[in-house]
């Protein structure tokens, strides 16, 4: 089974490395809560992967558990939505009956726009300290994957990297579009130096897999271009570009959402 089920779905498997009892589940609503939630609740070990996913989504809905943890507090399923993406994460033991954190994996299902899926995956990998497809117990994983109809290790790695590469190409395309704007003679010497500096910073940030830094640099360049364009219009100079500026950017802020409590839903 590959990671791409159809044109709207990606399935990726991630190794859990750390998990702590920092969250709770409201058994009445099934919603994720912080550990200070005052009403009756269930302890849940969310894990580093699930936290990274939530932090990389754009203002996600409060995760709702379709499988509430019971005796095994690290075995659960939740679903959340963020703009045009729906994310389901299943936490399951795959080695040594889940007696340690490294015996768990997360099955991540992403549904929605392909570019949005790629960007979320790109950001997830960037914030995790180790590639999520690297399994601590490889033989046990392949046995689990065989029983559950999941991609084997190498296929799973390819599925992750396919999405990552697409997102990186998207960012590089944005940088190259900005690069073409420097061909205009309407920029001042100071503007050219600023744009060249920001383009260099954007390329270095892309090498570091820091997508937000790339986008901030491109936004600064865009502001200079717009300002120069407006200045030239006022003073009757040659326009920088007769066509409107269009950039394939998706600005996705990092939001530490997992520790918030939506009191309106309590």
Characterization of this structure:
By secondary structure, the protein is an alpha+beta fold. The protein has two domains: 4-151, no CATH class; 152-252, no CATH class. It is 39% helix and 18% strand. The protein is built from six helices and nine strands. Strand 6 and strand 7 form a beta hairpin. Helix 2 crosses helix 4 (153-180), helix 4 (153-180) runs parallel beside helix 6 and helix 5 runs antiparallel to helix 6 (211-234). The model is unreliable at 1-5, 239-245 and 251-266 (pLDDT under 50).
Q: How many helices in DSSP terms?
A: 6
Termini Cα gap: 40 Å
Shape: elongated
Secondary-structure-derived class? alpha+beta
The helicity comes to 25-40%
Strands, helices and their partners?
Blueprint: E1 4-6, E2 9-15, E3 23-25, E4 32-34, E5 42-44, H1 48-56, E6 64-67, E7 76-82, E8 85-93, E9 104-112, H2 114-127, H3 138-148, H4 153-180, H5 189-207, H6 211-234
Antiparallel strand pairs: 1-2, 2-9, 3-4, 3-5, 6-7, 7-8, 8-9
Helix pairs in contact: 1-2, 2-4, 4-5, 4-6, 5-6
């Amino acid at each position: 089974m590959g990671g791409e089920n159809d044109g709207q779905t990606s399935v990726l498997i991630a190794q859990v490395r750390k998990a702590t009892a920092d969250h709770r589940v409201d058994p009445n609503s099934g919603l994720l809560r912080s550990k200070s939630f005052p009403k009756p609740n269930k302890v849940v070990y969310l894990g580093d992967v699930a936290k990274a996913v939530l932090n990389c989504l754009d203002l996600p809905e409060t995760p709702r558990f379709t499988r509430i943890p019971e005796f095994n507090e690290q075995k659960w399923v939740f679903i959340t939505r963020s703009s045009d993406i729906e994310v389901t994460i299943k936490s399951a033991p795959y080695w040594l009956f889940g007696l340690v954190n490294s015996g768990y994996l997360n099955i991540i299902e992403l549904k929605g726009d392909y570019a949005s899926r790629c960007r979320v995956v790109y950001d997830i990998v960037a914030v995790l300290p180790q590639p999520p497809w690297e399994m601590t117990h490889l033989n046990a994983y392949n046995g689990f994957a065989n029983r559950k109809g999941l991609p084997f290790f190498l296929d799973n790695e390819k599925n992750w990297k396919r999405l990552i590469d697409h997102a990186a190409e998207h960012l590089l395309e944005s940088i190259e579009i900005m690069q073409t704007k420097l061909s205009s003679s309407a920029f001042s010497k100071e503007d050219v130096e600023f744009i060249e500096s920001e383009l260099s910073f954007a390329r270095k940030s892309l090498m570091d897999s820091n997508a937000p830094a790339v986008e901030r640099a491109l936004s600064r360049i865009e502001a200079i271009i717009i300002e120069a364009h407006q200045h030239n219009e006022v003073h009757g100079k040659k326009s920088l570009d007769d066509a409107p500026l269009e950039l394939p950017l998706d600005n996705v802020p990092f939001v530490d959402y997992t520790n918030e409590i939506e009191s309106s839903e309590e």
